[in-house]
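Handout, section 4.2: multi-component inputs.
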Amino acid sequence: MGTRNPVTWLGSPTFPKAAREALADTQLRQNLRKATGTIRGRRAAAVAEMTDWENLRLAGEAIKNDVLSRLDTLLVQLEEAVTARGGVVHWARDAAEANEIVLRLAREAGTDEVVKVKSMATAEIGLNEALEAGGVKAIETDLAELIVQLGDDRPSHILVPAIHRNRSEIRDIFQRRMGISVSDEPAELAEAARRYLRQKFLTTRVAVSGANFAVADTGSIVVLESEGNGRMCLTLPETLITVMGIEKLVPTWQDLEVFLQLLPRSSTAERMNPYTSVWTGVTPGDGPSSFHLILLDNGRTATLADSVGRQALRCIRCSACLNVCPVYERTGGKSYGSVYPGPIGAILTPQLVGDMHDPLSASLPYASSLCGACFEVCPVRIDIPQVLTHLRAEAVEAKGRTAESIAMAAAAWVFASASRYERAQKLGSLARFIARDGRITSLPWPGSKWTSSRDVPAPPAESFRSWWRKNRGS
Amino acid sequence: MKVALLATCLTDTFFPSTARAVVRLLERLGCEVAFPLDQTCCGQMHFNTGYRNDAESLARKYTEVFSGYDHVVAPSGSCAGMVREIYPEMGVSAGPMYELSEFVVDVLGVTDVGAWFPHRVTYHPTCHSLRMLGVGDKPLRLLRAVRGLELVELPAATSCCGFGGTFAIKNAETSTAMLTDKMKCVLDTGAEVLSAGDNSCLMHIGGGLSRLRAGVRPVHLAEILASTEEEPWAHATP
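Output:
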């Protein structure tokens, strides 16, 4: 312990505060509405093609639960398989350890520049910043990650980290940072990025990647992507360093079949993603001659110890929950203060941080109306609303005595007895005298949070129960 | 058939006309309705805000109050969901609980309840009815059978209205942004009545529409189904 977990961004405000600012950004809201609306519709169509989709989800859930229940032995099996095929396995307890290993390996390879395959694990540990502090430059090669990097920006989506940008904003970033003149046509922008990156692929000797899956019994690592830039990084450099969360395992190749169907349809709404790269250790004369696998914990074993919260470790980072989330659609990803935004971020980030006294962590489980749209689309059936309320209970416990906890205790005391409840009801109904035209338009705090945009109906003189007693007796 | 009514604290206190409508409807359909006066709140607010112990006490109180009944009906998808789906998470098992449209369609086997309601109506399906209970199109089937009623489809119907209990207070701005989009969809339908199976969502959307003086009336599904040509439902904000 000691060093802070970089999964949340230093100095990030709590969710409600960040969201308030994001909501005022009309350009952001327009960009997000368009982007999430489009991908939502496409995903629904891609999923509707599959008659066995619900069975696939059940299978995905079952395989991941099996992995989590015997993670200890499967990880050792993976280590043995990777080592037997010429790879080197490293274990990292936290972000600092993982970053240190990558930096050391880059230095040993004699390079001050690495190319990167899009990866959530390396974003989670703040690898780019750590490498930079050690004098090594990391170059993102995923188009959206590159846009974020060149814009000195932060990611706002798991799959499309630059989803908050529209094409004219992207053109401005490219012109400024690449020193070129380019239109905002998607094809031209992609061509500009291609030219910029191609030179890097051909000259850089070390690549860093994450992993979508690792097959325990063969030691094979799997990366799914759309652009082919990942494939360049995975094949051209001499040294490949993969940073992988310890939960990314599947036991066998057979299990992979389920996820290769679930992930693309949930994530990019494709039947199959354009590039699936698989490698097993090193193969002389083919691809990198040196392969290092870093197995990252960073709060995962602590999450695994929580019988309700551990289901978050089933996540395959598809982003479907972000795209359907009504909160995410309006606030954007940066309001969540972490590389993991949206509903999955609201349950994963606080668990990886592991400290509900942290104000941001404690605010994240409340960043949801509990509408359940996330659970409905999750390809591995993570019951996100269930974990949210579970973590809310932890947040309440960590906070101790607050104005809210006193009010809640009072409400519980009133509700515990029908006669007390009835007396409170009669007292509350006096509020009808401050109503005009049947509505109350202004209440003192915290009711003002409601009446700032919504009226309250005037309470009637007679509750249902008094009507019932009068008309039906008992 | 004997059935107990869980009026829900919100409806009991703020929307008594909805609970009276449930009584009228179920009696018209041949049920004997009981209202155990010891009932208070199902504990959903406490549970959803993170106050587990209080929620669990209220859950146990519920099971005591309703233990003698084979069927309990609530005019609320979220309170019914609390009892049916969340109580077991807390280790509390309650008897059979139905949201109103489920009870009428599945248990009583009726879709035409003999109602008459000559208005242009749009229906918001509410998240917990839809995704926690899975009531599907039961409310819509009931509404389609209502004479005189013109049902207009609500665009983006399955999107949350932004209520979410204490979410509307804790994240008031985000909640309002969701509400704004929901209101726009409601207004786009040109309906004069917005209906739903849950007074909490109706209070939220209705509260926003009231602020705009939009002239769209929120009316609970039960009140539409209770209305007949002989006895039209006099919806009054009492």
